Structure formats: C-alpha cells, structure tokens
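Write out this protein's structure.
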Amino acid sequence: MHPDLKAVIELQRVDLKIAELNSQIDTLPAEIRSLEDQLKDHLQAHESHKDRLTANQKERRELEGDIQPIQAKISKHKDQLYEVKTNEQYKAMLKEIEGEEANIRKIEDKILEKMLEAEELQKMVTQAAASLASEKARAAAETKRLQSLREADAKERDGLLASRQQLTVGLTPDVLHTYERVRKARRGIAVADVRNEFCTACNVRLRPQVYNDVLKNAAILLCESCDRILYCVEPAPGDAEAAADSGRQTSVSN
C-alpha cells in the first residue's frame, strides 16, 4: 500500500476517535449538572415535607392555645352559676357553658386531625430523608465516575493528538492538504473504502479503470463523485485463498 494512503487511513481513524472523545468530554459536564438537578429535586422534596410538618405543628399549637381562653371562660361561668338569682338565668348559663364545651370538642377534633396528619407527614419526612441520603451517595459516586471518565478521555485524546502530529509530519504536503480540505467539506470523513466497485461513502459505482487502480492501493485517488480519498480493503490471506478456490471451482463447473 502507498505510504501516504496508509497514513491517511490511520489519520482518519485517529481523527474520528478524537472527535468521539471530544464529544464525550463536552457532554460530561451536562451529565454532572443533571445529577445535581436530580439531587436538588430530592432536597426540595425533603424540605417541602419538613415545612409541611412544621406548619402542622404550628397549627396544633395555635389550636391548643385557642382552647385555654375557652376553658377559662367555662370555669368563670361555672363559678357564676352560684350567683344567679333565677332559674332562667341558671339555664341560660348552663346553655352557654355547653356551647363553649362544644367549641372545645370541635377544636379537639381538629387537633386530632392534625395529629393524624402529622404522623403521615413524619413518615414522608423520614422517607424523603432516606431517599435524599441515597441520592447524595449515588450522585457523588456517579459524579466521581464521570470525572474519572473525563480525565481518561482527555488523556487518551492528548495521546491521539500527539499521534496525529506524527502522522501529519510524515505525509506529503499535497496529500495532507487534500485530506484536510475533504475532511472539512465532508463532515470529518475524508477517506472511504471501495467495495464491489462502489465507494462506500457516497454509494456511487466507480469507472472500471478507476476501480482497477484503486484495487492496487498504489496511489492517492479521489472519488469522482464525493471527492474522498479512496482505498481498497486488502483481504486477509485466508479470505483471499477462499476467494481463489471459489473462482477455480466456478471455472471447473463451467
């Protein structure tokens, strides 16, 4: 194979891998931010449940505070029962006491509702705290893994960039110029292999003479359709022998 052709094939492999690594490196910060956002969601859920429980406890205290003045009023009215002069006044006082006691029962019912609600809220706070702790551990482990992956990708990319430099130094300037020009125009794919007389990049059939020349891998040839540098994959020895045997058998049968 022509040295420049072999070099540009390897150069494209290196460039494609560098592009892949760059893409991975660029997406990793977004993945880390996504983990941070998920952690914020768990934290907000935990804080929301805690806030609801705090509000519930405050409402219970306020309700308990509402009972005290009513109890004081009832106590006062009971003392006044001994001071009333008429039976009608006595009945009216008893009715007022009953009404105030009914108000206390209503408040106590509300307090009981708040207590039952508080039990559920406490369960939710406990569950949210456990979920938050688990998510923190998961996010920390995943962030560490992603950061390690980013460092490994960056290290591999640096090694490939060094290899690329060596490859470009060894290339004929005109070939390098052609490679870079086509790579820029063809979205990173400057080299294409030929199979069964077709350019695998643009899927256009080559002229017979061009195809025969490409099979030799002895020169830098461009696809007349997509302008990419062409080469032919050299079959492995076993594949070549199998193809030859198949050809001989076909000849005999004919």
